[in-house]
Design goal:
It contains 20 helices and 44 strands. With 799 residues, the protein is α+β, with helices and mostly antiparallel strands. The strands form 12 sheets. A 7-stranded mixed β-sheet has the order 29-33-34-40-39-38-37. Strands 3, 4, 5, 6, 11 and 12 form a 6-stranded antiparallel β-sheet that branches. Strands 14-17-20-21-22 form a 5-stranded mixed β-sheet. Helix 3 packs antiparallel against helix 11, helix 7 packs across helix 8 and helix 10 packs across helix 12.
Length: 799
Amino acid sequence: MKISYNWLKDFIQIDETPEKIGSILTQTGLEVESIDEVEKIKGGLEGLVVGEVLTCEQHPNADKLKLTRVDVGNGEPLPIVCGAPNVATGQKVIVATVNTMIYPSSGEPFKIKKSKIRGEVSEGMLCAEDEIGMGASHDGLLVLNTDKPNGTSIKELFDTGKDFVFEIGLTPNRGDATGHLGAARDLRAYFNRPLIETDFKTPEKKIDRPIEVSVENTEACPRYSGATIRGVKVGPSPDWLQWRLRAVGLSPINNIVDITNYVMMSLGQPMHAFDADVTGEKITVGTLSSGTKFKTLDEVERTLHEKDLMICNDKGGMCIAGVFGGVDSGVKDSTTDIFLESAYFSADWVRATAMRHSLSTDASFRFERGTDPEITIQALDMATTLILEYAGGYLASDYTDIYPSRVEKVKIPTTFHNFHRLIGEEIPNGRILEILNGLDIETVEMTEEGFTAVVPAYRSEVTREADLVEEVLRIYGFNNIPLEETLSAGYMAHFNEKEPYKLQENVSQYLAGSGYSEIQTNSLTNPEYFHKIPVGENPVEILNKSSEELGYMKTTPIYTGLESLRHNINRRQKNLRFFEFSKTYQKADTYKETELLSFYLTGESNEASWNKSANPITFYDLMQTVLSVFSSLKMDEPTFEELIDENYSYGLTVTYNNAVIGKIGKLHNKLTGYFDIDQEVFYAELLWKKLIKGAKTQYEFSPLSKYPEVRRDLSLVIDEGVSYKEIKQLAFKFEKKLLNRLNVFSVYKGDKLDAGKKSYAISFYLQDKEQTLSDKVIDKTMNNLIRAFETNIGALIRK
């Protein structure tokens, strides 16, 4: 939001520099993000002077050019070639001398240089108003009517104007500060200076066919004020008004619309002017049936919701209340009668409507934050007075003011002790009252201990004692509360030692160091994916879609992850390792949000080189990654079971502490093929919250054994249905003391074995932490393992 330094002076006397005012506004809660110097006329007419045309002759080499000699007050007349049709001897004109920068109304600025035009020397330029940014006309030279001597700076003849504009990052709770009046209130409280009273009074009226108003929905429109004005003449706004609007980034349109915008930027009260020929004799404020079509000012046809508040005539909607006008009801050049609206609309209703239709306007920006229900008549006085002055006409009605249920002021009992306790310093009681009164917060029922604060309706966010303390503190100044020389805490807060974000950072760093790239994809996805290749269930549909392609919240990371793979593969990056922390969303009886860590592998695990051939990525590369993540979180290895899921060609479920914690496998071709990916994609997803629940944040130290580890190898011929997991569990069941670990170093299935058989070559690592193992103990241990394998899984031990 933009606030003008000069405009603020209409509401409060300020002599401080713009930088000082900006610092104060930031301190009081209106954060100034930048201060920009703006000029009424770009370049400020620097280098332009009054000149007198002494002679004017036809250019010998161009029919449309003239040769002039112009006196600019420095003794020797300047030869200047001019193409303006109205140039003539004796005229006083605006001259841009050599080296002057010119800022035209349109196009890029340029510098005047001494030149030759069609063979004739030209030492300057005679200017039309559009050439120096003073208007849009290019019909001819801007001829001056002045007695000023030649050579006088043009700045002495025209108001070049300069202002400073504050760009304020307005927070949603400060609906009271959406106009210059709101910023001035904060300055009043800070400086303890009075506001400058406005002199706008209700104009005299001449009753002439007043337009009737009916409010059918007082929940959405608690107050509706308006006035009928007839006999206006629509035209350009006065120069000062156009300059004010341009300074804060608004484009002048016509005198009626500009005045409504001026009032909005002054008081924070949006207004709307209707063409009275369109409104007819009666205006109705209410809702239309769901599905009704309505074309807004941007000529877009919108479908109305049953809770879109509308301003209607007897034929239908004219305006979406508080948001956007209709294409036909606004003020036109031919308009002579208007109905001026100044209303208080419900912030909740306007916010919901604006979101439904993806509309954000200057009016909705203010109504969504909450406007002042008590200012509608003051805004009417201001707007009506200005319209009668600059557009003519007369007030043709009493003010309409439908306000059936007054918005009550909030009353908050409080004590001075609580102000001192919460602020941490004893601000004088008088200063507390002074600040609150400066913010229009009345202080009544005074006692030595405290008082009752009566909060104006436009400060809807101030509802409790702590809010009052904050109001005082932001004006008094956070920086004015001294810090103790020695800071200490009276207690230590308890924090969960597992910090999810720190764990996430650690895992991310580990994966990045392992050759993975992190991706972040959209939480919204294309509904077509779910309908064609459903993964997950119960999708959440977006009501206020930005586009149909982003209509669902994602039920799985697979969709957006495959989009990323496809994007890279199509750009010849085929060897990819991605990971992503993301969320999925479902809706059954309630909404459900799930956090996931997902992995995507595709292509080759390494590029071919002179001493190594390329190897394709396999399922076991992904398995190793998943196991490494568990290891990085200091967790025991998970267990795996066969995965039955139509979205995977094959895979495993990941189980930890008897709970399923994820999936790992090769994605089915129907998924990868839908995204035009013709290479295998291995995918895993882990439930992040369940994963970190088992994570350990401290290492458990155990001293390294000084006794050596012993390796013994066995070759087991077993049935194809026996898994390595069963072998491992069986080994540790029968040898818990000395067996350290196992490793499969060969797997064989072929014609040298009977049908239905396979062979595992496994290394067994034995270690005693208290003594060196003897051959006798080693042989006994291995014989026990052999008997266990032969007895329990029917293994044949190959010698």
